[in-house]
UniProtKB/TrEMBL annotation:
<dbReference type="InterPro" id="IPR027417">
    <property type="entry name" value="P-loop_NTPase"/>
</dbReference>
<dbReference type="InterPro" id="IPR020006">
    <property type="entry name" value="FlhF"/>
</dbReference>
<keyword id="KW-1003">Cell membrane</keyword>
<dbReference type="InterPro" id="IPR003593">
    <property type="entry name" value="AAA+_ATPase"/>
</dbReference>
<keyword id="KW-0342">GTP-binding</keyword>
<dbReference type="Pfam" id="PF00448">
    <property type="entry name" value="SRP54"/>
</dbReference>
<keyword id="KW-0966">Cell projection</keyword>
<keyword id="KW-1006">Bacterial flagellum protein export</keyword>
<keyword id="KW-0472">Membrane</keyword>
<comment type="similarity">
    <text>Belongs to the GTP-binding SRP family.</text>
</comment>
<dbReference type="InterPro" id="IPR000897">
    <property type="entry name" value="SRP54_GTPase_dom"/>
</dbReference>
<keyword id="KW-0813">Transport</keyword>
<keyword id="KW-1005">Bacterial flagellum biogenesis</keyword>
<feature type="domain" description="SRP54-type proteins GTP-binding">
    <location>
        <begin position="176"/>
        <end position="371"/>
    </location>
</feature>
<keyword id="KW-0547">Nucleotide-binding</keyword>
<feature type="compositionally biased region" description="Low complexity">
    <location>
        <begin position="66"/>
        <end position="75"/>
    </location>
</feature>
<keyword id="KW-0282">Flagellum</keyword>
Amino acid sequence: MNISRFFGATNREAMRQVRLALGPDALIISNKRVNGGVEILATDQTSLPDGGSAAASAQPSPPPMAAIRPAAPRAGTEHAAAAPGVDLMDAIGELKGSLETRIDELLWGSQLRRSPQAVMLFQNLLRSGFSTALLRAMLKRMPEQAAARAAFQWARNELIGHLPVLQSEDALWQPGLALALVGPTGVGKTTTVAKLAARCVRRSGPGSLVLLTTDTYRIGAHEQLKIYGQMLRVPVHVVQDVHEMRRIMQTVRPDQTLLIDNVGISQRDRYIHEQAALLAGAGRTVERLLVLNAVSHGDTLDEVARSYAGDGGTPLRGCIISKIDEASRLGPALDTAIRYRLPIHYVSNGQKVPENLLFLSASDLVDRALAPAQSNRTLYAPSEADLAALLSMTQPADNPAAAAERRRQQVLLPQLLTGSAHGEALGMGQLQAAVALQDEDPVLSEAYDLWRSRAAGNLPPAAEAIEHLRRIAHGGLEESQPAVVVHARLPLDWPGRRGTWSGAAWFDGQGRPLAAATQQVGLADGWHTPQGAWFLPPGRVQAGGSVSPEGGRPETPRIDRLSAPSAADALLAQIEAESGDGANTVCHVFDGGSQVLLRALSARGSCWLAAAGSRARVYLDDEPAVLSAAAQTLMYQPLDAQTFWPLLSAAGLEEIRPAWWAAVGLAELRSRGEPALPVRLFSLRAVDPRDGRLLKVWHALAGMTVDPDPGRIAQALILRQECHAAWRQAVPLLAESGREPLADRAVFAAQMGLAAWRLTQDPALAPAAQVVARMLGTERLSPRHAHAGLLKLYALKELLAN
């Protein structure tokens, strides 16, 4: 039996194709809705065995929805009525589709009325370019009680989980690969083939690759590919038909990779089937990748994917998304990849060969798609006013059983979790409010995601997690708002292992933490970074000794003698990694630093602030002096009471609310053979307002690009101390045994440390901190118990979610 597949936007369109292809005696095998329309599997009755035909003819009448009779007038009858089978089939099909659509719309509308967060999320994802079909299917499963940020995180995780991507480049570049790029004209196939060719040559050498093009239509198309071939020193062949294709295929060794560039064909062109037949008849299995232009409208991408997926050729292996640098939104391309199950192999972000070709993870792609647009204008997505006009935000009648269960929880759960020595318990509303505050806070919610990932055994790699957290940090900064990056260095003293933990964290201009960033861990046996780990060879463990790549094969003998970076080199690497994208001024805050480091940063124009000891030497008016003495000559001024406003307590001075005094002056650093380096000298004093007693003193040096405002410098200097305190509480997390790499665990520990510190310090989180303290059996959450309290809060969220 020969079974044919037909696809149409509507049931009537698909049936029309069946009648045209198979005639009036076609048998319908299946009729179902798929992404983008209706799919029908049908066969011709003449292809049935004789017994089957006889049996069918013996029946008094054909079974319903099986036989299709012509709708045209009978021969010799001018105004005969259409056969009843056609009307019945069309009527039933259209009625079924109409009912399914209507029921789906009613359920969808009911969910939107119950969940305001679903409305906001629906609007935001539409603005990112995702289709209503995908959003309906996804948001129907969204928890109804989720807060705004929790709903957004849920949607992000859903998109990441369903977005198909190539798991590794090694999975693609197998010996003997024959890969063809297909797609409409102008999407960038030829340039992408050149980029793929460069990757192949870099991996296996020019002798491993052959280029082929079927594009003989565009003027100069094959000449362009030949130029790339000459640059890469690989052969290029031009083919006109299937016979020439087979002849060239016979000349390609079985271990060679073949990349095929094809002529661009519109998704509506009938020649699309001929191209598919050409590749299918090559005499060798040819994998096809569809090139999707990120600039195209979502409906256009859907039509392209549908046409090429149903062109009769070999199934599409996946897709490559091109021109993301020109697209205002990446959502339509990702939406198409999800609905048509096309694993994304690469994305192209420019015309440069070979560098503008990226291999990105699902989380990277989704984060790029959900990133805030450069312009706030939303011409092609409904605004809040539009949705408010379409929806009536009324609450439906509650389910009695669900209401009874909620009342039971409201009575028992608070008593179980938050009973105090006085016999009092917090209300259910306070528990839910604490979880909602955690959901809305970016630092706590990102730490929660890492906590859940680690509990599930799939903690993300350090490089991937840092890139995501860095995007979160940038998203938390308003345009042109200054940012502070604190670089902390802590000693590690574990049983049998000693070393240092170096990390960075982002803060906004008001001193609020945004996210952890680059993390490095140095132990006596090796150096661990997001880019990999290096271990000392056996028998070579020594102070600052030699290291070799973890699990790697040395490319040269020098790899085995690679030394762990010095403290200055590690700090410089962090500063370079966290220098921002140019949209915001970034001030780097750290401890100490040699003159070599400070001069290097100043030469680059970096904004830096280095905490220094009282005995550090500077030159003041051409005379040498230590910082403590030089600070005595400065003019101090009181700081505003709101300087450290985001902190409930600063510098550990919980009991005393000190008066703050600061002074800024100019000094120089001098070194033999080097010109004098001008710097800013800063001193900060905390004074007991009751008796004028000096409580604490801080000194620092700053580059000349630092804002001389004493309040801003004081805030950045105190943030350095607070960040140290936060990560000291997180050191036990780093010391925990686990199968994940140490660098991955360092990112997790750093984010958890920031979250625990923020829970105790941010006034906006005070209600959540109170609930956490009651769960710990106290009335106030202290910094010493912040980490344990944070885990209690996450456990409470899990409990209320179930």
